């Protein structure tokens, strides 16, 4: 019964934030009939809301479809028709995401939860008709979402990214960097800072980050007696938290896919200064490394490693593994060059899509860029250049390089599946007019609670991601709801969307069932339970400071005000921990 109640608490919190969201300030309706309170009107699909006959395009006076009137027969020239669903613009429009969230919390399985939420949306749209449900779910939902040109570009980018990750690993670039680092890093602090820097540099994808940083830095940290629990924390904390603030990453592509009007990348960049958990996590890692402080269970692991050389505190789940001699002829450049190429090509691709080469300014071009086109073209060129480079280097055979493409595709299948289902769920809620229902409630029940929404959304994201083990699924569910509450010109919209991403990353960082957490412990070859228990106090510390920062940002939604305050709060927290740690060491020394 206790576990059942524990699972229901996050669900009740989700329902609470939905009710609170309905009480926030809204924007006024315009002349568009869909903007009127209680409207059941939708844009006519036959004429794309133009009101013109799309059979003859106003060119054939003898057209049988319009009878020579040149007027769309479906909407009679108005451009709008009434929704076929009886549940359009009602509370039931919120049922699909609620069902998906509730099932994800109860079952801790995101794929089936998202799909069931999609089916519920199809049933409501088709008024529970069998044929209509099937057609709406698969044709108007899954097929339409996946075949959308913008979404398809994002999916291809993920596949290419997976192929490049496979290429770099197979070429031996990671092993070469490890050998270089062993001869250039001289202290424990240096080894920890090198791990953080490498993790921040490999910001393209969190999976790539965990696997690469772990294999590269294990020999270095072992040499300087850094516990595997500490290494796994540094790996985990530079995976998702770094990817979620990197404009050129699989995470940026995912978030961009959830935004409206193709402005996802611009929205992602605007949200970076408000992503307090990610930014403060980096500050936290640097602080504890430079100040040489550890607390909670981590302190015992670090003490054992420094004093007796016991990196595992007596529990090594990998002690039966055979250590194979590294015979790779890879170079450090085999890791660095492909990453640099990918960054440069993707930046160039986004500038191209924004019209930079047609005379548009750099900032304007980057803000107006199409993430789908830019990342797709950039990653494609980077892959070709990398293949040419590895071919000239003779790092591997041509057939071996080609085999990296399907291997990369397979590695990205979970991400592609979550993204496709999240897009489809968003399409279901849109087809039911969920955003209009929330807008109407917001408009008629104004209050000042909207100032606390960033902090509330952050907590919801933490709970959802912790329970489900997935951050992509979490912000895939929450971002569409936030976009329904605030128009994009409202300053709080950016803060709340950033809170969605920060909460999702925080929960994912803490969750023992998160794939990133599991890969971080595997990359460091650390016992998984030890990794989760030792990093939890650190993550909770940053989450607490982030929560307070989001409360402040709700009242002061200016990045140049909120971010410095958050940094000061984190520094004061670190200073307080340092003073307590120093006092405890003094007490122990005097007792001896």
Write up what this structure looks like:
This protein is mostly helical. Among the domains are: about 40 residues, no CATH class; about 200 residues, no CATH class. About 70% of the residues lie in helices and about 0% in strands. It is built from 25 helices and two strands. A two-stranded antiparallel ribbon has the order 1-2. The longest helix has about 35 residues. It is globular. The protein starts with a helix and ends with a helix. About 50% of the residues are buried.
Which consecutive residue ranges, at least 5 long each, have pLDDT under 50?
A: 1-30, 321-327, 587-592
Helical amount among residues, as a percent range? 55-70%
Secondary-structure element sequence? HEEHHHHHHHHHHHHHHHHHHHHHHHH
**Per DSSP, what share of the residues sits in E-state strands of 2 or more residues?**
under 5%
Describe, in short, the structure shown.
Residues 242-555 form the Na+/H+ antiporter NhaC-like C-terminal domain. It is a multi-pass membrane protein. This protein has helices at 2-21, 95-107, 110-125, 130-147, 149-171, 173-184, 188-201, 206-223, 228-237, 240-243, 250-258, 264-271, 276-291, 297-308, 333-353, 362-367, 371-393, 398-431, 434-444, 453-468, 471-485, 491-510, 515-523, 528-555, 559-591; strands at residues 41-43, 80-82.
